[in-house]
């Protein structure tokens, strides 16, 4: 992450009052700690999340502070972890289930699709399943094909589930609190390569960030760059490189994928006439394909160039070619030049 991208992500326009600077993993830990303190219904569990604090130390110190009945380890069974969370949520608790890596959510797929996502609808609104599934997602840490995937598109397709992926400490803490205080199941993807790389100002006082609202990271008039999660530093680096050539790119961070902020996207693209969409998930059936369709459906006559996408490749996530697979600032800038020259 360049210094310029770090500065742009460090302070959100939404931040006010007394603040301090922390990284993204600390923001997650603080959100869990404060919600455990605020609401006795909150429990946190998963593989190694107890005394050890999890693989990435997101729950470090929470068992000692809140007790083993509130923050505890589970067997190595994702289906059991999510299944237990669904049952707890239906019975009035606020469970936070950690899946050690997003790549391992497959065994819990049916519990999410058939149970958590359907609970409100199948009960006619009498029951809800207000659970949060936290999971590290994405590449950039040389984790290979079983520890680097971006499976968010599978879950966006499930009616009844909210899907979130922050890129800053401010958003991580505020969105996680909103997820825990809501009435719907939320899958909370955490871009692991930003855990300690992303630092930013976070208010000292309690706050939330609304799910479903994008963040404007940079204003511009020549084209719109849209991303979310781990790609955001590269998106901002590309915008800065374009600025050096006299091109002013507007940058939107979606933050939430379901629901997503269609109004903010369409407003920006209507102004600029060009859009480049960036994510590290494989290109085919990528969530950004839905964003692209929505743009052309609403703004076809206003577009100055085709909506372009920069994404991961349709292949298993590579180990040695980790940096080649991810959308780089150069790949993003090249797509922007293509849009500008159309």
From TrEMBL:
Q: What keywords tag this UniProt record?
A: Oxidoreductase
Domain Transketolase-like pyrimidine-binding: from-to ranges: 22-197
Name of the protein described by the UniProt record: 3-methyl-2-oxobutanoate dehydrogenase (2-methylpropanoyl-transferring)
Q: Which domain of life is it from?
A: Bacteria
CDD domains (alphabetical): TPP_PYR_E1-PDHc-beta_like
* Pfam families from the UniProt entry: Transket_pyr (PF02779), Transketolase_C (PF02780)
What broad taxonomic lineage does this protein's source fall under?
A: Bacteria, Thermotogati, Deinococcota, Deinococci, Deinococcales
Q: Which cofactor does it need?
A: thiamine diphosphate
Q: Name the enzyme group at the top EC level.
A: oxidoreductase
EC numbers: 1.2.4.4
């Amino acid at each position: 992450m360049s210094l310029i991208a770090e500065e742009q992500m460090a302070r959100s326009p939404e931040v006010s009052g007394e603040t301090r600077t922390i990284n993204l993993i600390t923001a997650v830990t603080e959100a869990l700690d404060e919600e455990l303190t605020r609401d006795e219904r909150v429990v946190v569990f998963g593989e190694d999340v107890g005394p050890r604090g999890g693989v990435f130390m997101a729950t470090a110190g929470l068992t000692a502070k809140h007790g083993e009945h509130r923050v505890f380890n589970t067997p190595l069974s994702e289906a059991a972890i999510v299944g237990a969370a669904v049952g707890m949520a239906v019975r009035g608790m606020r469970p936070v289930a950690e899946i050690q890596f997003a790549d391992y959510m497959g065994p819990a797929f049916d519990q999410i699709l058939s149970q958590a996502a359907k609970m409100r609808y199948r009960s006619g609104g009498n029951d809800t399943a207000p659970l949060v599934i936290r999971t590290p997602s994405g590449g950039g840490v040389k984790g290979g094909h079983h520890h680097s995937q971006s499976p968010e598109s599978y879950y966006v397709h499930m009616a009844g589930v909210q899907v979130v992926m922050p890129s800053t400490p401010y958003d991580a803490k505020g969105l996680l609190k909103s997820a825990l205080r809501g009435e719907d199941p939320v899958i909370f993807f955490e871009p692991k390569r930003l855990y300690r790389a992303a630092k930013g100002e976070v208010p000292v006082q309690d706050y939330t960030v609304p799910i479903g609202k994008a963040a404007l990271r940079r204003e511009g008039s020549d084209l719109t760059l849209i991303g979310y999660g781990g790609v955001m530093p590269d998106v901002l680096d590309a915008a800065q490189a374009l600025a050096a050539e006299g091109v002013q790119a507007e940058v939107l961070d979606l933050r939430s994928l379901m629901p997503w902020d269609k109004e903010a996207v369409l407003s920006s693209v209507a102004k600029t006439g060009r859009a480049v969409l960036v994510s590290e998930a494989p290109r085919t059936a990528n969530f950004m394909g839905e964003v692209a369709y929505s743009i052309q459906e609403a703004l076809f006559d206003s577009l100055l160039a085709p909506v372009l996408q920069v994404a991961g490749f349709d292949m298993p996530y590579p180990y040695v070619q980790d940096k080649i697979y991810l959308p780089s600032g150069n790949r993003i800038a090249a797509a922007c030049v293509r849009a500008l020259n159309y």
